[in-house]
Amino acid sequence: MRIQALAVSETLAMAAKSRELKSRGIDIIDLSLGEPDFNTPDAIKEAGIRAIQENFSHYPPVSGYSDLRTAISGKLKRDNNLDYSPDQIVVSSGAKQSIANVILCAVDPGDEVIIPAPYWVSYPEIIKLAGGIPVVVSAGLNQNFKISPAQLESAITHKTRAFLFSSPSNPTGEIYSKEELKALADVFARHPQILILSDEIYEYINYEGTHESIAQFESVRDRVVIINGVSKGYAMTGWRIGYMAGPMWIVKACTKLQGQYTSGSCSVAQKASVAALNGDPAEINKMVTEFKNRRDLVVKRLSAIPGVKTNNPPGAFYVLPDVTFFIGKSDGKTTITSSNDLVMYLLNEANVALVSGAAFGAPECIRISYSTSVDILNQGIDRMAHALSRLS
Ligand code: PMP
Ligand code: GLU
Fold first, then answer.
1. pTM for the full model?
2. Residue of 33, 166, 237 best suited for mutating to test ligand 2, as the one with most atoms within 8 Å of CB
């Protein structure tokens, strides 16, 4: 059965485990799930309330209300200088569904999809759901977790159908520069059969420079599908609104697919998303400033723990330290043989919930989500440092 080949989402599984331990009265510090701890800004909530009062309670168009697709088209011009008409956009129930729609429409059984590792946990599973073959190209901390054009080139075969990546990246927090994206686009220019899925959900959570999209390069433009949404930038994870923008053939395919299995996304959440996209960016900037303070704190404190090696991630809200140093070590009771073991050790001994790097194709790492208060982060890192110091 198809479902048996599918792994559970490790991020959601760890969040569920930590919720369960908390409900049993155990004082867990949860640094597992990646979602802003802020509440949705008031103006956006009010737009949602108005939509309920104005009876937006009927089926919306399958690809999304036209005012939302117009707002997305305007956002792509305003923020990215990209021209996508509202017709080239499909709104879905979260960016996760947008990715699944595109992969299910474009990838046939046996097709290969290249994903740079560390990758976001759901990418290989969504590819497998479509019968595709995830082809993993790994980049470690020594190359800032970013693949080179030569690595990309050597992974391409006649079966390669798509390439799927995120920048800013979950789980590494790294960002491909304009020059790096151009170098990858130059490789793709030689392989016109490859569709490029550019997951830009962390676009706004960028502490250095402006956001760059691979869609800006003419040589690949008609093969790029942009994935984005309101979850991260506007603290709207629960509203479940994401979107794709791309060439008409894939837009039509995704609309047909979605018309058969969700009928489109929540009407009220769509109206709130219009307010988000057209709203005051000051709200986003406040959150990003706070994320940056937390990034600085977490990187400084982790770097001071003997054996923990980390990059200084310029975006998203994750750090992915390399913990190879601890493999083979023991506290006298438990021997750590993998990053999975280390995550379980930290959960049991330090009551800190993290996600193993193995879930992201980086078995030498653990992922820390720092989307929580400075106070909680400090407590979590104190506990981690203490538990790690007991391993020898
Ligand atoms: N892509 C990446 C890289 C993510 O981290 C997430 C986070 N959940 C998603 C897509 C999905 O976001 P959404 O909440 O819009 O489904
Ligand atoms: N993207 C977040 C994470 O990686 C949320 C969980 C999920 O959607 O898998 O933690």
1. 0.96
2. 33
